[in-house]
């Protein structure tokens, strides 16, 4: 009997219908950007200092510039030196007192600057920023700065919990149903975020966004790879992720035009209502329908594909079957992931690389927002390097293989983080270049681990293996805000040193994995154990195959 892939060879593997589906789903991929990296703009922490009553009036009376006002009225920031004013303490003096000198106000008030008592920012803060963020609105600085970490960790916690549940919904009720329901939930949560008055509710709705949004993005990824032929799946998957990079550019431009976080949240959420039109313009996955025994519906969709592609439907369509219908089923188990030496090694290395990729990718974006340059230009430059990253993957993956480009990408990311940490602050342009190289390296690594993960597990456990290993990505996302925002208080470049160690170790571990270039997907655990020795004719190529039938059932 012919399979769906056999029929796609006749009616078009990537023709008009597939291109239309690919384009509309790329809009979904781009729309995921504000949820994943929105903390850069929503949680932007500008330069700030304590508000001291009377300082503004004194500055106006004395005719001080801002620099002079800071010099006279803001204490030094610990060991940072006189060039840096304290963000969390102020002089405990009465600036409204009579007889205050304009040339040396502290000396006229207390006589000795070193003996001036310091106190906390009891009257709030002054922010050097024309817009607003959740940091400026809720004063998430100093003692409450950890709340910004929690803001970003909450969405990654949602990713972690939701990826399993949404994956089950997609396998149980279909890709299209999953897409529509998660898009609707994401839009509702995004709109509510605009109007909630308290920090607690912001964290709650941010968590709920994470709960549905990553599963929504993944369902789109699966659907777009299931409607194209085998030789296009890997390229389409990479370009679907590249659409996320386009979303970064759009998000950066919108954030520049709308510097107030609530209006920005509303601006990036409202267009997502149009994604609900997927109900009318997207098909259900024919592969999923066949796997559920709904062959009549699958035939109708295949007929529509042939009609839109202006191809003739094969006469043997009635014999359409799912690829694995005639094979004996094996029940997937978590213990299978670590039962044999090669499986165990693959699992632990993949887990670590998912964890590291998430920490470095998100961490570099967060740290970039703290570098002190123009946040919009820095974000733009670092986003642009993701496009050559996708090009490098497409060019090298079948010519060089998976292992060496993947290992090199991790090593480049780690080395670039070290170089960025060691470059002096006054060479901001050079720090930005090395940071962008690190971003390109970790982008390559992130995209590599996505599809190599599927190539290192046998068919019956492939979905479970990807689900378990990629869960470490979300755990990395939970801890990375604490790594970045806490360690910068000790030393601004300390997070980059941590990223260096993680990246270099990841690059070394990748070299321990077997090369999968030119090898067929493993069907059994024994195939995996022999993968590093397996020899396959050159005409058998390995493709990124999205399995839709392996569902973990209770």
Describe this structure in words.
This protein is mainly alpha-helical and 554 residues long. Helix content is 62%, strand content 2%. It has two domains: 1-46 and 129-319, MFS general substrate transporter like domains (Growth Hormone, Chain: A, Up-down Bundle); 334-532, Up-down Bundle (Growth Hormone, Chain: A). It has 24 helices and four strands. The longest helix has 28 residues, at 146-173. Mean pLDDT is 84; it is low at 322-329 and 535-554.
Based on the model shown, name its key terms:
two-stranded antiparallel sheet, xenobiotic transmembrane transporter activity, 554 residues, MFS_dom, Growth Hormone, Chain: A, 2 domains, Orgcat_transp/SVOP, cell membrane, Sugar_transporter_CS, 4 strands
List the helices and strands and how they pair.
Blueprint: H1 4-11, H2 16-31, H3 33-37, H4 39-42, E1 48-50, H5 55-62, H6 66-73, E2 90-91, H7 105-110, E3 118-119, E4 125-127, H8 134-138, H9 146-173, H10 175-195, H11 199-226, H12 230-257, H13 261-269, H14 278-281, H15 286-291, H16 295-308, H17 341-368, H18 375-384, H19 386-396, H20 403-422, H21 428-455, H22 462-487, H23 494-510, H24 525-529
Antiparallel strand pairs: 1-4, 2-3
Helix pairs in contact: 2-11, 2-12, 9-10, 9-11, 9-22, 10-11, 10-13, 11-12, 12-18, 12-19, 17-21, 17-22, 17-23, 18-21, 19-21, 20-21, 20-23, 21-22
């Amino acid at each position: 009997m012919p399979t769906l892939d056999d029929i796609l060879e006749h009616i078009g593997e990537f023709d008009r219908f597939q291109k239309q589906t690919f384009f509309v789903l790329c809009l979904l991929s781009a729309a995921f950007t504000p949820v994943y990296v929105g903390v850069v703009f929503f949680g932007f922490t500008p330069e700030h200092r304590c508000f001291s009553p009377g300082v503004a009036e004194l500055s106006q009376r004395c005719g001080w510039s801002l620099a002079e006002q800071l010099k006279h009225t803001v204490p030094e920031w610990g060991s940072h030196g006189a060039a840096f004013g304290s963000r969390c303490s102020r002089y405990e003096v009465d600036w409204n007192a009579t007889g205050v000198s304009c040339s040396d106000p502290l000396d006229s008030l207390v006589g000795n600057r070193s003996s001036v008592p310091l106190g906390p920012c009891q009257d709030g803060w002054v922010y050097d920023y024309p817009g607003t963020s959740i940091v400026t609105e809720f004063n998430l600085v100093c003692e409450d700065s950890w709340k910004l970490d929690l803001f970003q960790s909450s969405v990654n916690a949602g990713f972690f919990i939701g990826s399993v549940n949404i994956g089950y919904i997609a396998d149980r009720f279909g890709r299209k149903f999953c897409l529509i329901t998660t898009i609707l939930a994401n839009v509702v949560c995004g709109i509510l975020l605009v109007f909630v008055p308290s920090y607690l509710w912001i964290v709650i709705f941010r968590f709920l966004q994470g709960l549905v949004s990553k599963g929504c993005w993944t369902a789109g990824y699966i659907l777009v790879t299931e409607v194209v032929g085998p030789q296009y799946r890997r390229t389409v998957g990479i370009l679907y992720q590249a659409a996320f990079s386009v979303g970064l550019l759009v998000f950066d431009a919108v954030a520049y035009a709308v510097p107030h976080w609530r209006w920005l949240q509303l601006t990036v959420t409202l267009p997502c209502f149009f994604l609900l039109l997927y109900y009318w313009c997207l098909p259900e996955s024919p592969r999923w329908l066949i796997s559920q025994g709904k062959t009549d519906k699958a035939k109708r969709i295949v007929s529509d594909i042939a009609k839109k592609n202006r191809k003739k439907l094969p006469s043997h369509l009635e014999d359409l079957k799912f690829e694995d219908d005639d094979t004996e089923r094996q029940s997937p188990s978590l213990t299978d992931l670590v039962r044999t030496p090669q499986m165990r090694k693959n699992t632990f290395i993949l887990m670590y690389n998912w964890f590291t990729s998430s920490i470095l990718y998100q961490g570099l974006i967060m740290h970039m927002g703290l570098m002190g340059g123009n946040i919009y230009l820095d974000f733009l430059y670092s986003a642009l390097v993701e496009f050559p990253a996708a090009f490098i993957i497409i060019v090298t993956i079948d010519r060089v293989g998976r292992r060496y480009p993947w290992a090199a990408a991790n090593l480049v990311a780690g080395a670039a983080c070290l170089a960025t940490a060691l470059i002096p602050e006054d060479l901001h342009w050079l720090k930005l270049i090395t940071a962008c190289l690190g971003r390109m390296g970790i982008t390559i690594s992130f995209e590599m681990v996505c599809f190599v993960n599927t190539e290192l597990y046998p068919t019956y456990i492939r979905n479970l293996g990807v689900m378990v290993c990629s869960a470490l990505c979300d755990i990395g996302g939970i801890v990375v805000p604490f790594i970045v925002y806490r360690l910068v208080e000790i030393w601004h470049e300390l997070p980059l040193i941590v990223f260096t160690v993680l990246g270099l170790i990841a690059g070394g571990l990748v070299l321990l994995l077997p090369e999968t270039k030119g090898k067929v997907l493993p069907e059994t655990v024994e195939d995996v154990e022999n993968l590093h020795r397996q020899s396959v004719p050159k005409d058998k190529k390995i493709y990124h195959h999205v399995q839709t039938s392996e569902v973990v059932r209770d």
